[in-house]
Amino acid sequence: MTDILLRHDSEHITTLTLNRPQARNALSLGLMEALDAELAAIAADTAVKVVILAANGPAFCAGHDLREMRATPTRPAYEAVFALCSRLMQRIVSLPKPVIAQVHGIATAAGCQLVASADLAVAAETARFATPGVNIGLFCSTPMVALTRGIGRKAAMEMLLTGDMVPADRARELGLVNRVVPEAALRDATLALARQIAGKSPLTVAIGKEAFYRQAEMDLSAAYAYAAEVMTRNMLARDAEEGIDAFLGKRQPVWTGT
């Protein structure tokens, strides 16, 4: 891992910090590769229960690194960028640990996609979001995939067609972010949410996250059949037995992750 991505581990929470402040944390090939590699390693790391995506500098993420992309204006180069970005976003969704975006400044284009791909998002009151590709002749087609799965279609289409900046409070109304807090409280608020989730059974959280995304792509009857099977499997886990026994016994559960 290079210094364009920083990692900090504490209390079973890993914070990955985008560290290209001069470029507003634009997603260069190097940054996407570093982030994808770290998430792949975290997937197998039993010590990590929650991941926070944060950023240094004035912005969370301004999207793809357009200067880097225009330096090699060929189809293979563009295909490589978007393939890597797509893999990274799917890595976030498939990661068996919740991912929380800690957003300040702007999150635009692929930066907005990063927020929409995260499981949860906490934003500073001053944060703003946009998919402004349409303004420069490049429709935000890949950010659209995450956006349309995170907010309503009409709202997503408005963002995609106008390119307008959406303030944090409106982003919360749309469902793009979960919580909006004063900028000075952003880190503490994100950590509080991460700690709350880290206190749950990691097995249960992993089962639930996978099931959440899988059932969302099914029709109603298939979703219920799948969810019933997931709950049956979950009930047979040691952590479910421990959690139910602890609840009935009015004591704190002791999770083993099995």
Automatic annotation (TrEMBL):
GO BP: fatty acid metabolic process
Alphabetical keyword list: Fatty acid metabolism, Lipid metabolism, Transit peptide
GO MF entries: hydro-lyase activity
Free-text function comment from the UniProt entry: May play a role in fatty acid biosynthesis and insulin sensitivity.
Family named by the database record: Belongs to the enoyl-CoA hydratase/isomerase family.
NCBIfam families (UniProt xref): PRK08139.1 (NF006008)
Protein name (record): Enoyl-CoA hydratase domain-containing protein 3, mitochondrial
Protein source organism: Rhodopila globiformis (Rhodopseudomonas globiformis)
